[in-house]
Amino acid sequence: MRKSAIVLSVAFILILVFATIYSINYKKNQLPTVNIDIPYSGLLKSKHYDCILPVGALYTDDDNRNYILLVIEKNGAWGKEYVCELKYISVIENSGTHVALKVNKMIENPVVVSSDQPIFNGSEVKIKKERLNEK
Protein backbone atom coordinates (compact mmCIF):
# COMPACT_ATOMS: atom_id res chain seq x y z
CA MET A 1 0.00 0.00 0.00
CA ARG A 2 2.73 2.43 0.95
CA LYS A 3 4.79 1.65 -2.16
CA SER A 4 1.86 2.35 -4.46
CA ALA A 5 1.22 5.70 -2.74
CA ILE A 6 4.83 6.72 -3.35
CA VAL A 7 4.65 5.62 -7.00
CA LEU A 8 1.41 7.56 -7.49
CA SER A 9 2.89 10.66 -5.84
CA VAL A 10 6.00 10.55 -8.02
CA ALA A 11 3.87 9.99 -11.13
CA PHE A 12 1.65 12.95 -10.18
CA ILE A 13 4.66 15.23 -9.67
CA LEU A 14 6.13 14.19 -13.02
CA ILE A 15 2.83 14.91 -14.75
CA LEU A 16 2.75 18.38 -13.16
CA VAL A 17 6.33 19.09 -14.27
CA PHE A 18 5.67 18.04 -17.87
CA ALA A 19 2.37 19.96 -17.96
CA THR A 20 4.15 23.10 -16.74
CA ILE A 21 6.91 22.79 -19.35
CA TYR A 22 4.34 22.19 -22.09
CA SER A 23 2.22 25.19 -21.09
CA ILE A 24 5.25 27.51 -20.98
CA ASN A 25 6.37 26.43 -24.44
CA TYR A 26 2.82 26.69 -25.78
CA LYS A 27 2.46 30.23 -24.41
CA LYS A 28 5.78 31.34 -25.92
CA ASN A 29 4.77 29.96 -29.32
CA GLN A 30 1.52 31.97 -29.21
CA LEU A 31 3.23 35.31 -28.50
CA PRO A 32 3.34 37.98 -31.23
CA THR A 33 6.66 37.94 -33.10
CA VAL A 34 8.23 41.36 -33.63
CA ASN A 35 11.07 42.82 -35.66
CA ILE A 36 12.99 45.46 -33.77
CA ASP A 37 15.46 48.21 -34.49
CA ILE A 38 17.57 50.50 -32.34
CA PRO A 39 17.26 54.28 -32.80
CA TYR A 40 20.38 55.90 -34.23
CA SER A 41 21.67 59.38 -35.00
CA GLY A 42 22.42 60.35 -38.57
CA LEU A 43 21.32 62.18 -41.69
CA LEU A 44 17.75 62.37 -42.92
CA LYS A 45 16.99 64.64 -45.90
CA SER A 46 20.48 66.20 -45.55
CA LYS A 47 19.93 67.19 -41.91
CA HIS A 48 21.49 65.57 -38.86
CA TYR A 49 19.15 64.19 -36.18
CA ASP A 50 19.84 62.48 -32.87
CA CYS A 51 17.06 59.90 -33.11
CA ILE A 52 16.06 58.19 -36.37
CA LEU A 53 13.86 55.10 -36.81
CA PRO A 54 12.18 53.29 -39.69
CA VAL A 55 8.69 54.67 -40.37
CA GLY A 56 7.23 51.25 -39.46
CA ALA A 57 8.09 51.94 -35.82
CA LEU A 58 5.64 54.86 -35.72
CA TYR A 59 2.09 54.29 -34.44
CA THR A 60 -0.80 56.74 -34.03
CA ASP A 61 -3.48 56.46 -31.34
CA ASP A 62 -7.17 57.41 -31.53
CA ASP A 63 -6.33 60.99 -30.49
CA ASN A 64 -3.82 61.35 -33.38
CA ARG A 65 -0.81 61.25 -31.03
CA ASN A 66 2.34 59.51 -32.30
CA TYR A 67 3.98 56.81 -30.24
CA ILE A 68 6.49 54.01 -30.45
CA LEU A 69 6.59 50.66 -28.65
CA LEU A 70 9.81 50.02 -26.77
CA VAL A 71 10.84 46.44 -26.04
CA ILE A 72 11.79 46.07 -22.40
CA GLU A 73 13.67 42.96 -21.27
CA LYS A 74 12.51 41.56 -17.94
CA ASN A 75 13.57 38.55 -15.93
CA GLY A 76 10.60 36.23 -15.60
CA ALA A 77 10.16 33.05 -13.63
CA TRP A 78 11.28 30.99 -16.64
CA GLY A 79 13.95 33.27 -18.11
CA LYS A 80 13.96 36.48 -20.13
CA GLU A 81 10.66 38.00 -21.17
CA TYR A 82 10.14 40.91 -23.57
CA VAL A 83 7.32 43.36 -22.91
CA CYS A 84 6.19 46.35 -25.01
CA GLU A 85 6.07 49.75 -23.39
CA LEU A 86 4.33 52.70 -25.06
CA LYS A 87 6.24 55.98 -25.38
CA TYR A 88 4.66 59.10 -26.87
CA ILE A 89 6.97 60.97 -29.22
CA SER A 90 7.11 64.01 -31.54
CA VAL A 91 8.08 63.57 -35.18
CA ILE A 92 10.41 66.27 -36.55
CA GLU A 93 10.94 64.91 -40.07
CA ASN A 94 9.45 62.10 -42.17
CA SER A 95 11.31 60.93 -45.29
CA GLY A 96 8.74 58.28 -46.17
CA THR A 97 11.03 55.43 -45.06
CA HIS A 98 12.47 56.88 -41.84
CA VAL A 99 11.37 59.38 -39.21
CA ALA A 100 13.40 61.74 -37.04
CA LEU A 101 12.09 62.05 -33.49
CA LYS A 102 12.33 64.86 -30.99
CA VAL A 103 13.71 63.33 -27.79
CA ASN A 104 15.10 64.72 -24.55
CA LYS A 105 17.55 61.84 -24.25
CA MET A 106 18.46 59.09 -26.69
CA ILE A 107 16.18 56.04 -26.66
CA GLU A 108 18.35 53.08 -25.71
CA ASN A 109 15.79 50.29 -25.83
CA PRO A 110 14.95 48.44 -29.05
CA VAL A 111 11.79 49.64 -30.78
CA VAL A 112 9.14 47.49 -32.48
CA VAL A 113 9.19 48.02 -36.25
CA SER A 114 6.72 45.30 -37.26
CA SER A 115 4.67 42.51 -35.72
CA ASP A 116 2.81 39.45 -37.00
CA GLN A 117 -0.09 40.14 -34.59
CA PRO A 118 -1.62 43.28 -33.05
CA ILE A 119 0.41 44.47 -30.05
CA PHE A 120 -0.27 47.04 -27.37
CA ASN A 121 1.28 48.61 -24.32
CA GLY A 122 2.11 45.73 -21.97
CA SER A 123 2.04 43.01 -24.65
CA GLU A 124 4.57 40.24 -24.14
CA VAL A 125 6.38 39.49 -27.40
CA LYS A 126 9.14 37.35 -28.86
CA ILE A 127 11.87 38.89 -31.00
CA LYS A 128 12.33 37.61 -34.54
CA LYS A 129 15.19 39.77 -35.73
CA GLU A 130 17.62 41.75 -33.64
CA ARG A 131 18.01 44.64 -36.08
CA LEU A 132 16.50 45.61 -39.39
CA ASN A 133 18.83 48.39 -40.50
CA GLU A 134 22.49 47.65 -39.96
CA LYS A 135 24.65 50.71 -40.48
Written account of the structure:
With 135 residues, the chain is α+β, with helices and mostly antiparallel strands. It folds into two domains: 1-30; 34-129, conserved putative lor/sdh protein from methanococcus maripaludis s2 fold (Beta Barrel), CATH 2.40.420.20. It is built from one helix and ten strands, in the order αββββββββββ. The protein has one helix at 2-30; strands at residues 33-37, 40-44, 47-54, 59-60, 66-76, 79-88, 90-94, 98-102, 111-115, 124-129. Strands 4-5-6-10-1-9 form a six-stranded mixed beta sheet, with no helix packed on it. Strands 2-3-8-7 form a four-stranded antiparallel beta sheet, with no helix packed on it. It starts with a helix and ends in a 6-residue tail after the last strand. The mean pLDDT is 85.
Mean pLDDT comes to 85
Proportion of helical residues: 10-25%
CATH top level class name of the largest domain: Mainly Beta
How far is the first residue's CA from the last residue's CA?
69 Å
Category by helix and strand content: alpha+beta
Please give the count of helices: 1
Q: Could you please say which CATH topology of the largest domain applies here? A: conserved putative lor/sdh protein from methanococcus maripaludis s2 fold
Number of domains: 2
Beta content: over 45%
* β-strand number: 10
The CATH architecture of the largest domain comes to Beta Barrel
- Low-pLDDT stretches are none
What strand order characterises the main sheet? 4-5-6-10-1-9
The biggest beta sheet reads: 6 strands, mixed
Q: Outline, from the CA principal axes?
A: rod-shaped
Rg computed from alpha carbons, rounded to a whole number of angstroms: 21 Å
List SSEs in N-to-C order. Answer: HEEEEEEEEEE
